[in-house]
Amino acid sequence: MIKLAERINRLQPSATLAMSQKSGELKAQGIDIINMSVGEPDFNTPNHIKEAAKQATDENYTRYSPVPGYPDLRKAIVEKLKKENGLEYTTDQIIVSNGAKQSVCNTVMALVGEGDEVIIPAPYWVSYPQMVLLADGKPVFVEAKIEQDFKLTPEQLESAITPKTKMLILCSPSNPTGSVYSREEMEGLAKVLRKYENIYIICDEIYEHINYTGQHASLASCDGMKERCIIINGVSKAYAMTGWRIGYIAAPLEIAKACNKLQGQYTSGPCSVSQKAAVAAYVSSQDCVEEMRVAFERRKNLIVQLAKEVPGFEVNDPQGAFYLFPKCSAYFGKKDGDRVINNSTDFAMYLLEVGHVATVGGDAFGSPECFRMSYATSDENIKEALKRIKDACARLK
Ligand code: PMP
Ligand code: GLU
Q1: How many angstroms does the Cα of residue 392 sit away from the middle of ligand 1?
Q2: Predicted TM-score (pTM) above 0.90
Q3: 331-351: per-residue pLDDT in tens?
Q4: Which of 16, 34, 250, 322 could cysteine-pair with 231, CB 3.0–4.6 Å?
């Protein structure tokens, strides 16, 4: 047996990607599965963005790009941050990477060292704790329950802080809950954070544009926070560009430089053609973003209504992203024949194998009483999926 490095042994595989793969395998066997596991828009990348990529290829943007990304893309990001978020950055504070996932990981690797504590509100996106573990840090989970709309309170934040706290990872709109922090809620967290000036904050804003409140609040825009915040964003969700792999950080210069150094040894600059497509996404009309947002909001209303009709589910009303995260623990301990549901992973597996709907158990998101459905799919699929889920649940006694 090959002796792998200890860091690999302690790493968990991504539950979201694993479930999506399993659903793909069942589909390949001819089983009609509705895939609500992975979180990605079902829309195609808008045509004007694809055209820009074709042009970039013809113009031979086919060689290595600068490690932090092309200057025109970083300039377009600076302008976006100014226009949409009222935040002033220079291009050297922007580092473009292979998706926002790498942007988060670069930042964690650049700042977190052995024994450093990283506060992660639960439910959390599956990859945060794993990235912290990769960096030899210690994830510190703070549970935010459905009754508090899954949002961290200033009191909870303050009681989790210790002299070893290095970082807080905040995601709004949130994956997996869809919760959105209001400006007042961000101000409340900022008030605590101002007292502890050695804590850095990752503000994961990848779902910024999929927001039903009409207002996106960035912690970085609260007094004294920009110098300590690392904004994560990218084109994957807003422009339906998950496969193009373009994400970025906007960060204090020293942190940006550290990520640049890391990326220079690790992956180099991201895909040249994708970067040119991302420029087109940022500088062209934003109508496509609004059209997709409207569709997501309609689907959100539909899925919330249908999920509330499933006996035993407790459902929040998410204000962003494209996930619903119902509490399903009423079914724990119940049986369908010989099959017992002991936890949310069992529940998701039951929905997959019996209901033919792929979802993800809440365990992987640090919330074992819930499960996640991505509603980035057609209205018809949502209706059929919820019917199947309701029928499968009705068999559990
Ligand atoms: N952060 C969150 C909260 C996400 O859900 C995702 C989804 N993949 C990412 C970051 C990474 O995005 P990307 O596809 O750009 O790597
Ligand atoms: N962020 C998406 C999700 O949560 C994509 C999968 C992943 O990168 O983990 O499903």
Answers
A1: 30
A2: yes
A3: 999 999 999 999 999 999 999
A4: 250
Does residue 338 share a domain with residue 279?
no
Judgement on whether residues 188 and 248 belong to the same structural domain of the protein: yes
DSSP string, 345-378: HHHHHHHHHTT-EE-EEGGGGT-TTBEEEE--S-
Among 204, 225, 251, smallest CA distance to 68 is for 251
Helix (H) / strand (E) element for 227: namely none
pLDDT per residue as tens digits for the range 185-215:
999 999 999 999 999 999 999 999 999 999 9
CA of 235 to the centre of ligand 2 (A): 14
Q: Is 102 in the pocket of ligand 2 (CB under 6 A)?
A: no
Final residue of a domain: which of 283, 308, 332?
283
Label each residue of 20-48 as H, E or C: HHHHHHHHHCCCCCEECCCCCCCCCCCHH
Rounded alpha-carbon distances, angstroms, from residue 306 to 38, 138, 300, 302, 372: 20, 39, 10, 6, 15
Q: CA neighbours within 13 Å on the CB side: how many for 76?
A: 19
The verdict on residue 50 lying in a domain is no
- CA terminus-to-terminus distance, the chain: 44
Domain that residue 242 falls in: 63-283
Cα–Cα distance measured from residue 200 to residue 337, given in angstroms and rounded to the nearest whole number: 51
With a 6 A CB cut-off, is 17 part of the ligand 1 pocket? no
